[in-house]
Specification:
Order of helices and strands: EHEEEEHEEEE
Number of helices: 2
Structural class: alpha+beta
Strand content: 25-35%
Distance between the termini: 31 Å
CATH topology of the largest domain: Signal recognition particle alu RNA binding heterodimer, srp9/1
Shape: globular
Length: 138
Amino acid sequence: MTDNEFPAPERGLVVTQFLTVRDVAVSAEFYAEVFGGTIVRAKNPATVRVANTWIIMNPGGGPTPDKPDVTLTAPEPADPVSAFLNVRVADIAAFYEHARSKGARFLTKPLDRGAEIRCYLVDPDGYLIEIGQTTGLQ
């Protein structure tokens, strides 16, 4: 698999993150701009290569034959959080400033928690993303 190919391995497996989003173009652009990703596929579904992973984005929808009791929806503002993306960076201060300049909305500034410095941002659909720099766990 080359860097720009859709994540379809010829052997083994690839782990990707799927997000149900309201506006595929807005979300793809967010991940490309804020995380320095490459839009590999623009829609149906959108796929953005970010570092060593892919984020796949598509609008929600009702059940399908292979997931008969599942409805996919983007989170609502008051929804509890049950999972989030965790991104580790080498320089959290630089990432924070870069992401803010691209319009990312952070919950707080990076906070020193002893073994790591971390903060959280939300994407255009309200998905929570932890940004952390390891300082003492190694």
